[in-house]
Amino acid sequence: MSVDRRTAPLLVLAGVVSVQFGGAFAATLVPRIGAPGSVLLRLLFAMVILCAVARPSWRGRSRSDWGTVVLFGLALAAMNTSFYASLAHLPIGVAVTIEFLGPLGLAAALSRRPRDVVAVAAAAVGVLLVSGVLHTSWARLDLVGVGFAAFAGVMWAAYIVLSQRTGRAFGGLDGLALALIVSTVAVAPLGLTSVDRWTPGDVALGLGIAVLSSVLPYSLELVALRHLAQHVFGILLSLEPVVAALAGLVVLHQVLDRSQVAGMVLVVLASAVVLGSQARPESPDAGMGPG
């Protein structure tokens, strides 16, 4: 299929669907081998595939370049581990909606327009509805899951900033490939504690999650961003909470109540307002999030 301005949005949408369904399948793996083990499998396979394709160069890098890529890899590890940990406590649609405040808040902070500040405030109300804080007793509210999802959002914002810096310092896929090496090494000590529980089926599922959550969406966005209008890219990314809820329903049979759906709609609308007016990301990595 030839890619142009009409077909590029389909590639981004396919990437969003791929990421969120990858996250839903990860939610089935987390209860068996834990969040660190699940993240390690995903990162390990993604690292192997991407390094085989990119064959990143280790030479000619400054100390500043290495510092940037190490921080990028650590943010990637923390973002995915905290997000996967939240899936053990929350429906995936809820987790993605909460963590979406990270990139949304970053975009609004960089914009500083009153309209964007209002949009983020509306999104915050939406997150309160989605999390159940307003109609659930403190005894029943899963604050651990909310905390993990919120921290994943903070790390997602850091990931976006560092991915752009990495994109300026490294050509092609080199930066992301090297960052995946760092993140895999960072997660390994915790992830390997569950290796005795890994089955061939778990390893195969980890490979599938790596393809769905990392390799495929990155490749699709890399092609699409060459042809896509900036506001269209932002609006399509804003659909991630909705797609996550759909993936949770199809894969995990998770059903959200009316107030949670209303909150999700607020977050999506706010995201469309803020992200839809942002400049084109400096590197395709900026569009990738946990999942």
Automatic annotation (TrEMBL):
* Topology of the protein relative to the lipid bilayer: Multi-pass membrane protein
Limits of the EamA domain = 145-275
* Main localization, broad class: membrane
Q: Where in the cell is it found?
A: Cell membrane
Is Cytoplasm given among the entry's keywords? Answer: no
Gene Ontology cellular component list: plasma membrane
Could you name the domain of life of the organism this protein comes from? Bacteria
Q: Which Pfam families match?
A: EamA (PF00892)
Keywords of this protein's UniProt record, alphabetized? Cell membrane, Membrane, Transmembrane, Transmembrane helix
Transmembrane intervals: 36-54, 66-84, 90-110, 117-138, 144-162, 169-191, 203-220, 232-255
Q: Is Phosphoprotein among the key words of this record?
A: no
- Secretion signal, residue range per the UniProt entry: none
Q: Which family does it belong to?
A: Belongs to the EamA transporter family.
The name of this protein is Membrane protein
Task: Give the taxonomic lineage as stored in the record.
Answer: Bacteria, Bacillati, Actinomycetota, Actinomycetes, Micrococcales
